[in-house]
Amino acid sequence: MGQKPKALTILDWITGILFITAILGVFFYAPLEAVMGWVQKVFYFHVAAGWTGMLGFLVSAVAGVLYLVKKDPRWDRIGFAGVEIGMVFMLICIITGSIWARPIWNTWWTWDPRLTTATIMELIYAAYLLLRQGVEEPDRRARFGAVYAIIGFISVPLTFLSIRIFRTIHPVVIGSNDPGAAGAFDMTPRMMQVFMFSLVAFSFIFADILWHRIRLGALADHVEQKKIQLQTWGE
Amino acid sequence: MKNSSPSLWKATLAVVWKDLTAELRSRELLTSMLVFALLVILIFNFALELDARARANITAGVLWVTFTFAGTLGLNRSMAVEKDRGCLDGLLLAPVDRAAIYLGKALSNWVFLLIVAGIVLPVYSLLYNTNLFQPGLILVILLASEGYIAVGTLLASMAVQARTRDILLPILLFPVVIPVLVAAVKASSGFLEGLGWVDVSTWVNLLIVYDVIFTAVSFMVFDFVVEE
Prior knowledge:
heterodimer; A: mainly alpha; B: mainly alpha
């Protein structure tokens, strides 16, 4: 406790440098997309933010299972951190997607499986935060959080599947190319490089923020314990 | 498992029996669920102007919204009763596998929801001059309500232990049961429009997959929710 670990400071610097390089890469290295123009630049960070968001939710589900098995409050802090970070990045993903969709699909929003699932995920994890807020006892809060993180995460693929059976217009840039999707494009090698680089950069951002958030959680728990100690001394 | 404790099945039935007997005597849960369900249909009648042409398409949606809302009411009540009068502690002290408590509560909740559905269907048929008693629709109601109740019972037992319990259950439950609702609405309207099995089977399969996964997971994690 106390001092910030040296490795974390190093990670901060690496993350900062990677992120700045990614921004430069997006604007100066990657070529301009022929049809969509500048707005396509959103793609690199849009997908990377979605990836980071999913990573956060995955971490929270895995930490939930580990908490229920091991009962170590560390796993609860990790799970909670995963949800918070996941929510922020999923929101970034939704907003950047809307900015792109306005000129390309001619609408801010459509009820496509990916968009709908992302929104439902935000609602699931908002419910997670409300659940935690409603329980005061730390041990019970951690158990409920873990259970809900698992249930919520498992429901996501089924939600996606159920909405997918309706027709989708979201482009699938990686993997299969559905000709019906509006706004799909083929990546040039340079685009691919920048895309992969931003995925790596965002993964670093995720790891860095996660570490900070877990540390903050540990410090907050520490403070809470000290407060309880003070109260018991006073009596 | 100790030899002296009753089998899982017996303990489950005992919990179901207890719930059904209590309900038979007080009738507060079913009455409020039913009145609420009928009110929801009444409100939809005016909000959507359910005329003859619109009805065929909208019926499935109205039915499922009604069941979902009435179901939340029932789930909340069924768990709050246990919590308020200290019955849950009594149940937890009983020398039985805790899975039996989950199974018992889930089964009785399921029975209550099916009773509500069993009364809403003829009333709706009567009011709107259609026939909702079709084997396909009944199958969908059985499957979808099972998945809904499986998750709902688990989440309700968490919600009643929280400070904000009355408002918490729908917030926790609705985003997680969206696959059930989408599949149930599509399958029901498919059956009501007389589509063939080929068009509806995807949705029925999705319901079965959801039921299996969520019943299993809820069954496994229930222990952690009531543990003290």
